[in-house]
Amino acid sequence: MTVLNNVNYSFSFKSSLLLLLLFLLPYFSNAQISGCTDPQSVNFNPQAAQNDGSCLYPVTVYDPPFAFELPVAVRETSGLFFMNNRLWTFNDSGGSAVLFAIDTATAQVVQQISISNASNIDWEDITMDDTYIYIGDFGNNAGVRKDLTIYKVAKEDIPLAGNTSVIAEKLSFSYPDQLSFEKSKSHNFDCEAMIAAGNNLFLFSKNRGDSKTKLYSLPKSQGTHIADLIETFDTKGLITGADYNEDLNEIILTGYTNNTYLPFLWLLFDFEDHDFFSGNKRRIDLINLITTQVEGITYLNGRNAYISAERSQTFSARVFSISSAQWTDHLSNIGEQNESQARKLILADNPVQNNLLRVKHSKSMKEIVRLDISDTSGKVIYTEAFSFRKSEGSEYIEINTSNLKAGVYHVTLFTKRRHFSTTFIQP
Predict the structure, then answer these.
(1) In the chain, where does the domain assigned CATH 2.60.40.3080 lie?
(2) Mean pLDDT computed over 169-173
């Protein structure tokens, strides 16, 4: 009798444990699955709930539209930034220590700001935060420089109109891994790209030796610093410019291939915090701009941006328009703070029945303004703009899917500040 009771108890315990594990299996599976979450990639994993940065993309070629020629005063344009509805730039090595404001409608210089306590040994890039503008005098073609400098200018010192002279704070720095300063044409300690993020400045090196880029960080404070080497990424080319859109959680890098000067862009997006290479990394080749040395990049509004190219034997200095929307908008997280991925969207237990997709409206969604359905290539094939509040009735939004072919799809709900996303199967 005792043995039978022990057997029954053991069987009951094991059965209960098995049922518990079966109940929790979907939770653990969803929590642990990581992979490529971009439907435009060639290795998209519709089951992945967390982006692991593994996305691979097909060769992408783009011909950016011409915007305007730059005036002769900035024919050696290098860095770009956009402020006060004007495009700002400067000349690189040997030029004056002056920022030029360009009216994009007339392509004329309308303002000049001199940095009275600075010199232009080799200005290469420029960036800004809410309070300051940072000018990178860190071009190092031969690898011999020991006076790498960043000038820090208060934005409040720059008037809305008229020429003036300002004083800059000075940041000096060195690379922790540069041990030799012998002249070389194949070293890895040049730099032409910089962004500001949080309390730090981040530099993307221009590696003439291995055509990769090293990411460094240093504080924004005045003084002398040793930059922190964070990681290296194989860009397969020389990086010449960078800009960061914090609201979009997106970076654009410009560059060209060594020796052949074929220009390209790298889009970095859906990354975690300031771990810029932890998310998606997509290369865009600009092969129709042959021999054009692309130098500068700046966001204008949203995903619209300008890229600049300095004068060459073929072209005058000029500006091209670019928008990253076609490659990154489907993963948009505009307005989201401290989150790099869309919040997980909850579907009904059986999301598609009788060609009806049922999407649950949660408390955190508030008012929904748009719903998109895209295929596995990232193409949006259905969109609807509307206002939906839970207080108005059903807790589910229902979408007719009878026009969809059988397969895997991506559904995204947008509120005014967030978006929620997941995949579903059309039977």
Answers:
(1) 342-427
(2) 98
Question: Contact at 8 Å (CB) between 260 and 322?
Answer: no
What would be the CATH architecture of the domain defined by 66-330?
Answer: 5 Propeller (2.115)
pTM over cut 0.85: no
Whether residue 292 contacts residue 310, with contact meaning beta carbons closer than 8 Å, is answered with no
CATH classification number, 342-427, choose in 3.30.450.40, 2.60.40.3080, 3.40.190.10, 1.10.1760.20: 2.60.40.3080
Q: Looking at 146-246, which runs of residues are DSSP E strands?
A: 149-154, 164-166, 169-174, 190-197, 200-206, 213-219, 223-226, 228-233, 238-245
List the 419-426 sheet strands across, edge first: 343-344, 419-426, 407-415, 368-374, 380-388
Residue 194 has pLDDT above 60, yes or no: yes
Give the tokens for residue 303. Answer: 């995903």
Comparing CA positions, the residue from 311, 310, 260 lying closest to residue 287 is: 260
Give how far Cα 152 sits from Cα of 179, 223, 347, Å: 27, 11, 50
Give dist(CA 4, CA 375) in Å, integer: 58
